[in-house]
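TICKET #2291
ISSUE: user wants both folds in one file
ATTACHMENT 1:
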Amino acid sequence: MSVKRLLNLSLPQGQSAFLWGARKTGKTTFLHQRFPNAIFIDFLQSEVFAKYSLNPHYIRSEILAIPEDKRNGMIFVIDEVQKIPQVLNEIHWMIENIKGISFILCGSSSRKLKSSGANLLGGRAWRYQMFPFCYPELKELNWNRIFNRGLIPEHYGSEFALKSLSAYVYDYLINEVQLEANIRKREPFIRFLDVLTLSHTEMINFTNIARDCGVNKATVKSYFEILEDMYIGYFLHPYTKRKNRQIVTQIPKFYLFDTGVANYLSKYTFSGFHTSDSGKAFEHYIFLELKAYQTMSETRDELFYYRDSEGHEVDFIFRDQAFEVKTRQNITSKDIRGLLLFGKDYRAKLNVICTVDKKRIETFGTQSVTIWPVQEFLESLWSNSLF
C-alpha cells in the first residue's frame, strides 16, 4: 500500500537530524524515498552491528576516506542508532570538523541513549518524529481498518493484520522492552500489558496497577517510562490552571501509540459505534490525531485533559479550546457537563467531535458549542483552520 507520508523532513546542507518513532511506523521506508542517494548504515544488520559496536571509530575513518570533493553534500542515515550509543561521539566529532555533510539518526527508542549518558549532539541535530498513519495521509475513515488493524502502515493495508499485531506485541514489543530495560523476568511486564488495557485512556493509578501485576509502584512507573521512551505510548497530563473549583493536577492518563495495538491487547473488535468500548476507541483515535498534529506542526502549545474534584471532565484541552469526544449524535447538556463547566470557568471555545453528518452550533444556556462531524473536524485541524 503506497501512501505519501506527511512528515516534512528538509535539511539545509550540513544540517543533521534525529528521526524517532516506534518500530514499523515507516521511518526507514520514508528515508529511502526522501533521500534515495543517501548512504544507509543499518545497525539491525548483525554484521553491521558487530563491526561498529566493537569499533565505533570505523564510521569516522570510513567517511574521512571519501574524497572531500565527493563527500561534500552527502547524507548518511544511521538506522536504529540507539543500539550503539558510542557511535554518537564519532558523529558529533564529524559534525564539528567535517563541513558539508549531514547525518540522519533514526531510532525507535531513546531510553538506552538517555540511561547511558550518550552524546545527543548538544542540540546540533534537529528532532523529528514519525507516527503511524494519520488522517491527511489516508484521507479516509475506514473504521474497521482503523480499529481492528490499526494505523501502523504494514498492518493497515494487510488482510493478515491480526497475525501481524500478535507478532508485534509478543515477538517485538515484549522482547525489545526486556532488552531495553534489562528486565530479567518478562512475566510481570506481560501482566502489566494486560492490566494496562483496563486503565488505557483513563487516569493512571500506579498503586492499583502495581498490586494487580504483583510488582512495586516504582516498577510500574518504570514500565510506563519504557513505553514512552520507545514511542509506544504517551502520557496526557492534566490541565493545571486553577479558576473557581478544585481540579486534578498531578494524575496523568496514558494512551498507546496505535489503535490496533491497543485494541489487540484489550481483545476489542470494532463492529459499530454502539458500545462503551467503541467510545473509548474513538477517543483514543482523536487523541492520536491531536498528538500527531501537535508534534508535526511544531507548536509549543501542549495537549491536556481536564478533571475537577467532583469528577467533571473534558477529554482534551489544546490551544485554549476544549474538545469532548462522543459517539452519539444527539448531544444533551448532561452529556457535556464537564465541557460546559470548563467553558464557564475559562471562557474557552467549546467543541464536541462525534459521528454526526453535518456541522452545527448548539446553544446550552448562554454557551455555544460547535458539534463537529469527525471528518470535517480532522480536515479543519490538519488544514490549520481550526485555531
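ATTACHMENT 2:
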Amino acid sequence: MQEYLNKNIKEIIGEFPPVADVLNGYDIGCVTCGLGTCLFKDIVGIHDLDPGEEAALLAGIARVIYPDRAVAIPKIERKSKPKSGEVSYSPPMKKLVDEHRLIKRWVAVIPRFIEGLDVTTEAGRRLIRQGIDFIQSYADKFHHAKEEAILFKCFDEDLDIIRTMCADHENARGRVREMLAALARQDRETIAGNLEAYRELLTEHVKKEDEILYRWMDRNLSMKQVGELFAKFHEKDIEFGDTPQKYQEFITRLENKFNTEEKRK
C-alpha cells in the first residue's frame, strides 16, 4: 500500500477503476477533476477527513488494490490537524466565501437568463453585455484576481488543487471571449451554450473552493499570513470602490425581473 502513496490519484484510478467509487463515497471528486495529479497521500489532508474517515477510506482503497490479502494501512502524516464541527473561516477566507454568494446568485438565474436571450434588439444585446460584464468585472477581475494575485501566492502554485482552480478561471475567460464574439455576430445558440457551460463550471468551482480549498488553506496559513491577506484584500476592495454594490444591484434587478415574469405565467 505504501508504494501507492506517492502516485498521482488519476494514475491509481486508471489502474484500479473501482477506486473512483470509494473516493466518491467520501465526496472526493478526483474523477471529474481537470488535472488529477494530486498525490494519493495528499488527498486525505486536502479534503480534511477525520481519522475515522481516513482509516475507512484507506481500507476501502486497499481492498480494491489488494483484493486477495490483508495489508497494513499506512498512517499519513499531516501538516495540520483536521477540524471538526461547524466550519469557521478566517476573515480573508470569509470575504471570498461572501463574494461567492453573489456569484452563486448569478449562476442561479442563468437558466432564466438563457430563456430570455435576445440578440436581435439593442435592449436585448445590452442585457447580455451586462451579464458578460458581471463575469468579467466582478467574478474575474474583482474576485478571481484576489485569489490569483494574492491568496495563491502564499502557497506552492504548482500544487494540483491550485492549478485546477486557475484552469477553471482560464476556462471561464475562454467562455467570455466566445460569448463576446458570438454577440458581435448575433449568434444566440453559441451564447446560450457558453452560458450553460459557465454555469456548470462555476457551480462545481465554487463548491470546491468553499468546501475544500479555502478550508485547507486556512489550516495551513499562519496568523501573520491571515492578517496580511486581510489587509491586501481590503486594499483591493478600496481599489474597486463601489463595484460590488453595482453588481449586487444588477443581480437583484435580474432576480426581480424573473420573479415578476414567473408570477405572470
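RESOLUTION: both attachments delivered.
EXTRA DETAIL ON ATTACHMENT 2: The chain has two domains: 2-65, 91-264.
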